[in-house]
Design a protein that fits this description.
By secondary structure, this protein is an alpha+beta fold. The protein has helices at about 1-35, 40-55, 80-90, 95-105, 160-205, 210-225, 250-255, 265-270, 330-390, 395-425, 425-430, 435-450, 460-465, 465-490, 520-535, and strands at about 55-65, 70-80, 110, 130-140, 140-150, 230-235, 240-250, 260, 275-280, 295-305, 315-320, 455-460, 495-500, 505-510, 535-540, 550-555.
């Protein structure tokens, strides 16, 4: 009997030694498996899977501590299906029992996690969990996050050996995470350098401003794994911003949206002149204002385009999907350099535009001088010659035709003089001409529409159109362009302004949704009232190809009826 007992004890010790050997082998395999990966997301997934397998846990999770050091910025799970995660709702932020390891980064082992004083209980649809083992994961001297394991299979409790195994794994996990982060940083730096070279080439090659901005926003979105990227610029004569460029989900809906300076992430970055970030764009109480954003947005950062608050020319907004990592300080440094590139693009575009305007003014002066010195003088001489020749023409019909030609020459001379006046007019002396005002309004509308409208002008707009009628025409133009941007969802807008001998005609055509029969008519009533106040009319048509055509007319000799 004694021999049997000794044999059984020996067999038990052999089995225990074999189990320890197998567990050590499993731990070594887990360490090798975790250290083999260089992608950070894959490393974190392998850590959770290996931990659950080593201690035979049903559920495993890894919480990444956020920049504030008090809450979790990321929470990954193993053992729960996507449907179960969706039913549970928002992921934990690091309060209650999970926050206990954040406050006290030491291993924690419980036989009943619900009995702990820091436990808040489970949310609805959360599976029941009883046993618990939590271990901090350190990267160098900093706590990166915490590894949580629950419900050891077979109804057993986690023991000291389980704690020792997971603590050993956490050390290897810290090294693997550090390696993955270093590799990720080097790859990201390489991509930033490539993008900087591409943008510099675009700037030096003279690409259009909007094209360079789009390149900057697109590359920043790709490198930071953002879901959306918006570039907002100051809205003229207001303190607000307008989304000039939108890339990503629902970009067509966001382009042209007005962003209030107060209560928005982009507005805060624009006013402060420094980057502003948030862990959740939709849930941050600091930024309650602004237009609706696409669903599923999480961490976001707004980077000013400029070197200081007074030099800020716009804001680049990047937003990641919900549940993605928050933007770190290491990521903001290259973003700031990128923002400097964007500011340089805007600066170069403005300087190029100034140079083009100067060249245009010089050209206009030359054309006006040539028209006055050459064309008018020759036309006048031709008219005098025809008048003299008319006396020698005996045929009545021929004489009438000669007189008609002289009248046409006089009218041509008037048109050329009006053109010269328009070419030489300076806004600081005579105020902006109607042509200049219309061109400016149509150019500014391109920002809210997302594309430049087509413009054509005809007639003596700067000399024959009275100032009062010109003001009403400008107001009507602004109203129609605003309606096209906000309601029509058009991709093409054409503006025509014509001054005949009797009236001024403004025609705005778009290929949008048209004017619904049950839609709001306040804007159209305003247009019609403006036309009636100067004795004009407003006609609304639906072209055969769709869209709408608004024709606003006003007589040139009309008096106000308001």
């Amino acid at each position: 009997m004694r021999l049997d007992e000794l044999l059984e004890e020996l067999q038990a010790r052999i089995n225990a030694a074999r189990g320890t050997r197998d567990r050590v082998h499993s731990l070594l395999e887990a360490v090798v498996s975790v250290g083999r990966e260089l992608d950070l997301a894959q490393v974190l997934q392998r850590i959770m899977e290996a931990a659950a397998q080593l201690v035979d846990a049903q559920y495993a999770a890894l919480g990444v501590i956020g920049p504030d050091g008090r809450t979790l910025s990321q929470f990954l799970t193993v053992g729960l299906t996507d449907e179960e995660v969706a039913k549970i709702g928002p992921l934990p932020a690091g309060h209650g029992l999970l926050g206990e390891l954040i406050r006290n980064p030491e291993p924690l082992r419980l036989t009943d996690l619900g009995a702990h004083t820091a436990s808040y209980g489970f949310p609805a649809h959360h599976p029941p969990m009883r046993t618990f083992l939590g271990v901090p994961v350190r990267v160098r001297d900093q706590v990166f996050g915490n590894l949580y394991l629950t419900d050891k299979r077979g109804g057993h409790d986690f023991d000291a050996e389980d704690e020792s195994v997971i603590s050993t794994l956490s050390v290897a996990a810290g090294v693997a995470i550090d390696n993955a982060r270093l590799y990720e940083a080097s790859q990201r730096q390489h991509r930033w350098l490539q993008a900087n070279a591409e943008i510099t080439h675009g700037l030096l090659s003279g690409k259009p401003r909007l094209e360079v901005l789009e390149l900057i926003a697109r590359r920043a979105r790709e490198i930071t794994d953002a879901l959306v990227a918006d570039v907002s610029v100051p809205l003229s004569s207001t303190d607000d911003l307008v989304v000039e460029l939108a890339i990503g989900a629902d970009d067509g809906m966001r382009r042209g949206l007005v962003i209030p300076a107060e209560g928005t992430l982009s507005g805060a970055a624009y006013q402060a002149g420094t980057p502003v970030s948030t862990a959740g764009l939709a849930d941050d109480d600091r930024y309650p204002a602004g237009p609706p954003r696409p669903e599923g947005l999480g961490p976001a950062v707004a980077v000013p385009l400029g070197t200081a608050a007074k030099d800020t020319r716009g804001v680049l907004l990047l937003a990641r999907p919900s549940g993605a990592p928050v933007f770190t300080d290491e990521e903001l440094q290259p973003l700031l350099a990128f923002a400097g590139q964007a500011a340089l693009a805007l600066e170069l575009a403005e300087r190029r535009n100034d140079a083009e305007q100067l060249a245009l003014l010089e050209d206009r002066d030359r054309i006006a001088r040539d028209l006055h010195d050459l064309a008018i003088q020759r036309l006048f001489a031709t008219g005098m010659t025809l008048q003299s020749a008319a006396r020698l023409v005996e045929h009545a019909g021929a004489a009438e035709r000669v007189q008609r030609a002289v009248g046409d020459l006089d009218e041509t001379i008037k048109i050329i003089r009006s053109t010269i006046f328009g070419l030489r007019a300076r806004e600081d002396e005579t105020g902006p001409s109607l042509r200049a005002r219309v061109a400016r309004a149509v150019g500014e509308a391109g920002t809210t529409l997302g594309f430049p409208p087509r413009l054509s002008m005809e007639g003596l707009l700067d000399t024959d159109v009275p100032p009062a009628v010109a003001d009403h025409a400008m107001a009507a133009l602004g109203e129609t362009l605003s309606n096209a941007a906000r309601h029509a969802r058009a991709t093409r807008v054409e503006v025509s302004l014509q001054a005949t001998a009797d009236e001024v005609i403004l025609t705005v055509t778009d290929n949008g949704r048209g004017i619904p029969a049950d839609g709001r008519r306040s804007g159209l009533r305003n247009l019609a009232e403006r036309a009636r106040s100067v004795g004009g009319t407003l006609d609304i048509h639906t072209p055969a190809e769709g869209g709408s055509r608004l024709i606003w007319r006003a007589p040139l000799a009309a008096e106000s009826r308001a």
